[in-house]
Structure prediction request, 666 residues.
Amino acid sequence: MNIYEIAELAGVSIATVSRVINDSPLVSEKTKLRVRRVMEENDYTPNVFARGLGLNSMKTIGLVCPDVADNYMARAVACLERDLREYGYNCILYCSGYAWEDRRIAVRTILQKRIDALVVIGSSYADDDPDAERVEYIREAAKQVPVFLINGYIRGENIFCALCSDYEAAYSAASELLRSGRRKILFLSDSHSYSANQKRSGYEAALREAGVPVREDLVIYTRNRIDSVRDLLLEMPQLDADAVFATEDGLAAGVLKYAKRRGAAVPKDLAIIGYNNSELAVCCDPELSSVDSRVDRLCKIVIDSLKLRLNGKPVNDRVYVKGCLIRRMTTDF
Amino acid sequence: MNIYEIAELAGVSIATVSRVINDSPLVSEKTKLRVRRVMEENDYTPNVFARGLGLNSMKTIGLVCPDVADNYMARAVACLERDLREYGYNCILYCSGYAWEDRRIAVRTILQKRIDALVVIGSSYADDDPDAERVEYIREAAKQVPVFLINGYIRGENIFCALCSDYEAAYSAASELLRSGRRKILFLSDSHSYSANQKRSGYEAALREAGVPVREDLVIYTRNRIDSVRDLLLEMPQLDADAVFATEDGLAAGVLKYAKRRGAAVPKDLAIIGYNNSELAVCCDPELSSVDSRVDRLCKIVIDSLKLRLNGKPVNDRVYVKGCLIRRMTTDF
DNA sequence: GAAGCTCTTGTAAGCCCTTACAACCTGTTA
DNA sequence: TAACAGGTTGTAAGGGCTTACAAGAGCTTC
Prediction:
């Protein structure tokens, strides 16, 4: 069943059928109705490939993220997919993994599908990255389609960034801990990504401002896995800290669990703040205080920009969203 | 840059270029090398739309699931996407939501993209469903492309199912609890889906077999949200149970948390078993015993079947995988 | 030296749409 | 009544690829 048969059955030309498909104002209402009825009766759907060829677009957006099994990215993907679909676009998903080379391949590969735009989630790039040239592939991609980064920042033609102001968020989280009298605040992170570095800077700024020296031994990196955190704490016979600021809820949840086992009272002996406000946070006992990095908000911003951009309108190339601390039970009141 | 230009530059016909693109054995190695070099030099990529038109396939698989933000489905999507990609296929994702009408629309919509196969995750359909006709759209879809169900069962031409044997898994989970002397086992579920019903049947069978009467007041349904569980427990001044079997880890985690708050010793006073062995389970304290429903295994099976099917080979239309109980700290040894 | 074979290449039709341009119809206007 | 405008429809030329079929090139064989 193709456009010719429909045209035949409706007694019109294929041009008219095509116009009906595209709801062109050039067709009279009467004809439209007739053609539509024939299409429905034969439940005809235009061939998207042919359509793609003609329009040079299949109304598809590429979504690249390191790992959808991560709750943060999953929420982003869910949000983006829904909204974009409602706007008439489908999403091709590509879980790249975290390695830079794999990310590069991901973008290159997905571009071959002739997507209309590319969204990269959790990219954590930055211009001031010491290895800045490793994000060059993003700029390459931007030559072909508009590129939207969620939580990554790269300056460039046709590149649009929506970021959580991690620096500020970390600053205020650390300040909160300082305000409640904590002086030995452990900074726990799982990566040296741009956003992790921003968090660290914010943390250090808050300490400095409060006149508290930044102690190298209180800045620790480990894998975001519960057993890594367990091992970490096992190796530290006595944890010389009265608070923890973790760059991921998973890390914070681990600290909470194993510190409690060790007999620490939370938050009295040890206050804890996580990051991302994931589903984990409310499952913890006591509930974990966490910085909400506002994925949904970031996604909305990206979607709005994307719509504007696809309509050829100008778009801000950088938007920051303030992260906000959700106070639960692992911090003082 | 199109196939004509490449042909021109390489001094061959477009047919030859096309054959090189498709790595046809009809082309001499010498010519292949030459054409390939020209393609690389101009970094040419064949237009997928035109290719799709010609081959009637864009090497794309449709992935429909109610909600990727759910850890179980996210793991499935991640696994499927990776393996299918390695096999040369990309995935179009569609998060349908749970409503039946929305699922129907999801499948109908995604089919229009002329995908080569459809994978439906967490469908929880069944032939013996009282509302069996509501899954008719799956059979409709199967007329167009092979359909693979993960954790759903519908008999039909071109429909292939991979399921966790929830009945058995639940049976053995309940048996485990009975073996350790529990007699008042609460069955806690968040849905009346096919697989939830299977779990309930398994649970009841175990009780009956042990000569323990099934108490209606110990079968409870509630939303899979931590606060729903909290409210549920609040409404039950004294929980007359010595064990809980929950159909989702989220529910189990909630019970664990609020039962502990109430002073119950776990597992001494209350043993708990969850389901799906999600990331939550190990974050709980004590770590949650949980039935591993083996998403990864199910995905592998689907992928293997899918490959066979796409090559026109015969495939089992139903494969069961045994769920297995992961014993952690919320059950006795 | 002609026939026949295999290997390789080219020609052209086809896949199913979109859309520029031409043409037609109807109703006004001068 | 002719010219014209506006609204509607049709014709035909793409768009970039695949592939059936034809054909040429280089061998071998008798």
Observations:
- Chain A has a mean pLDDT of 93.
